[in-house]
Amino acid sequence: MSALSITSNNCSLDFFAPCLNGPIKVRLDSDSRKSIQKSHKIFLELLNNGKKIYGVTTGFGDLSSIAIDHNDQKKLQLNLIRSHATGVGKSFDSGVTRLIMLLKLLNWSKGVSGVRLELVNLLKDLLNHDILPVIPRQGSVGASGDLAPLAHMALPLIGEGLVNFQERIMPAMLAMKEVGLEPIILQPKEGLSLINGTQVSTAIAIKACLEAENILKVADLSGAISVESSLSSRSMFRSEIHKLKNHSGQRIVASNIWNLLEKSEIVLSHKNCDRMQDPYSFRCIPQVHGISRENYKCVKEIVENEANSVSDNPLIMPNKKILNSGHFHAESIAQAMDNLAIAISEIGSISERRIHYFMKGVGDSVPPFIASNPGLESGFMTAHVTAASLVSENKVLTHPASVDSISTSGGQEDFVSMAPWAGRKCLRAIDNVRNILSIELLASTTINELFHAPLKMANAFLPVLKLMKKHIHYSKTDRPLHSDIKLVNDLIKSNQIIKCVKNYSID
């Protein structure tokens, strides 16, 4: 179990990765605890002095002109959580839910939210016991905070709602009772602080970034093996060529493929052929993969910045001022996810073109559709169809969500980001690309193993082939490829394939 410390230092994406792999243990350092306590003390001072505070002494959204009686301020927060728990659809997986909870703790640790340390500790205790709120995926427009899903996150804190505990869905109270935790009575502003923020949008974005990084690594590997199996030229990846383009991503990809193809007997076998121009899907891998890497780098920076930011409202400042803001608006995440979806989808599109190339055969050695007896056998014909269908899906999924605002809350919240949807469809696009790359890896390694033999693959590819052969029986006869595609997908997702590879860079 990973132990994570919340400090004043900014967190990289790697800090969050353990959340996706299983239960975690979180601690707040002393500075964070002091900041939280100081903020709460200032808040109470201002409230007791009769300060008008949005969402504490007033209603919410378009109801902010309505004054709330002192005796109703606690009830206001309770009503807020209950009324805003309106999410629908499938619930988030455990990894994303842990990220949401961790990001909320990080937000509070900045010391400008005015909440009690007791509330912070209870959310931390739920996370440390891996008591995970059941949070529906749909219902947020990514504007005044991820209101509906965060309300579902908040319900267990007041002893309501459902949780996932020890692989069981149960009432929150039952799970809390098992570990000796008691629900809390929300104090002024605490309900508002629970649901204000971009934590859901950002959690989805973190998962998307971590998965996209793996995709970018695998794409270079898959592309390089396809260069080898298609009998394409290695010379297109020479450093002197790519130094003429001022794109760092392109240079890295070209270097990766050049290094990966070193000492390939298959490549050397056609060194003196008269073929001068390979198809774009092989020749232009550095140009396409490279800009996707550069876009990923920009997206990663935006997501990390948001994860380390305050997205609460109103803000309880150390100088004893209460400032209203729009920090809960997730436009930055929305645009980042739209851009990442495009960048990763292009990886899938060019991969599908390489698969398509194989369908007509390669030279005299590889028959059409990678079928040993074309006509009687279909080989990879419909595996390519699957790849094509996923590329087509991604053309729809990459339509930007961030350009599609809709007015809510009686017109008060009149321009929204749609960040959660941008992130969710980005994850779907990433899943599709992972399957496309799985098909390409199956196709190219089948060619090298069954049709280019006895010529040896590049040394860098041999550990990959060895790993795949542990799970897959390469055969020249037709077989159901569904399970093989899934196996390769799992190997990609678990990082096992990339761990086999040397002479490789993502930076």
Quickly describe the structure.
This protein has 507 residues and is mostly helical. The chain is built from 20 helices and nine strands. The protein starts with a strand and ends in an 8-residue tail after the last helix.
Keywords:
mainly alpha, Fumarase C, Chain A, domain 2, 2 domains, 3-stranded antiparallel sheet, two-stranded parallel sheet, 20 helices
Structure description:
The chain has 507 residues and is mainly alpha-helical. It folds into two domains: 2-196, Fumarase/aspartase (N-terminal domain) (Fumarase C, Chain B, domain 1, Orthogonal Bundle), CATH 1.10.275.10; 204-499, Fumarase/aspartase (Central domain) (Fumarase C, Chain A, domain 2, Up-down Bundle), CATH 1.20.200. Helix content is 53%, strand content 6%. The protein has 20 helices and nine strands. It has helices spanning 13-16, 30-48, 73-84, 94-109, 117-128, 147-154, 172-179, 190-195, 199-229, 239-242, 248-260, 265-268, 280-283, 285-307, 331-358, 381-397, 419-450, 462-471, 482-493, 496-499; strands spanning 2-6, 24-28, 88-91, 132-133, 136-138, 162-165, 168-171, 315-316, 322-323. The strands form four sheets. The protein has a three-stranded antiparallel sheet with strand order 4-6-7. Strands 1-2 form a two-stranded parallel sheet. Strands 3-5 form a two-stranded antiparallel ribbon. The radius of gyration is 26 Å and the shape is elongated. The model has no long low-confidence stretch (mean pLDDT 95).
Secondary-structure topology with pairs:
Blueprint: E1 2-6, H1 13-16, E2 24-28, H2 30-48, H3 73-84, E3 88-91, H4 94-109, H5 117-128, E4 132-133, E5 136-138, H6 147-154, E6 162-165, E7 168-171, H7 172-179, H8 190-195, H9 199-229, H10 239-242, H11 248-260, H12 265-268, H13 280-283, H14 285-307, E8 315-316, E9 322-323, H15 331-358, H16 381-397, H17 419-450, H18 462-471, H19 482-493, H20 496-499
Parallel strand pairs: 1-2
Antiparallel strand pairs: 3-5, 4-6, 6-7, 8-9
